Amino acid sequence: MARTYKRVLLKLSGEALLGEQGHGIDGDVLSKYAKEIKSIQEQGIQVAIVIGGGNIFRGVKGATEGMDRVQGDYMGMLATMINSMALQDALERSGVQTRLMSAIRMEAIAEPYIRRRAVRHLEKGRVVIFGAGTGNPYFTTDTAGSLRAIEIEAEVILKGTRVNGIFDSDPEKNPDAKKFDTITGDEVLKRRLSVMDLTAFTLCRENETPIIVFNMNNEGALKRIVVEGSDEGTTVIWD
User: Fold this and answer.
1) 18 vs 120: which has the higher pLDDT
2) How many CA atoms lie within 13 A of 183 on its CB side?
3) Rounded to whole angstroms, how far apart are CA atoms 110 and 195?
4) Beta bridge pairs of residue 235
5) Engineered SS bond to 84: which of 97, 131, 147, 184, CB 3.0-4.6 Å?
């Protein structure tokens, strides 16, 4: 029998918010994502979210162009806050209660991240958005997503992408790429597949936190996976 979940962490990329634009945030994409998230929240699923900031700024890219890496990473954390605030607004306009929590203190717009408070918000049915990554340079939002999922004891990390799962090669470049329905963590490492960065992946492996990679742009996919137990996407399992 397919498994369903009660508490999940949804990891979204900042680039996903670009939509058809070359920069910034596409309001239509925000509204679509809010609708998808609401569809599981109103079923009683406890939902936490981490979103990247690559549509606005990438710290690593800035560092390769001569910017100090630490400075660039902090700028990237602020970019995640902009996306988090935009998603919060879209969710609340859809009638979903939310709380935005930041790893960097900025009380005017977000609560400071406190694990027990985050769990309490989830238990009350609020969607919790974690912004500013881990609050530390040299760590990606993938790592932040893995860390927060483990801290709040999420049952699964749902990595929403623009492809239908994990493939043996890039499906956007190779039309013959083979999709995996399930794959072990060791096989991901052996094949050097781009699922998450190594730090994030190691955190999940050490804590045996399952990862499901799926296409966030497929309407209803999030609800089918979480509520109905659909096996679409690819599940990373641990031996």
Assistant:
1) 120
2) 24
3) 29
4) 182, 212
5) 131
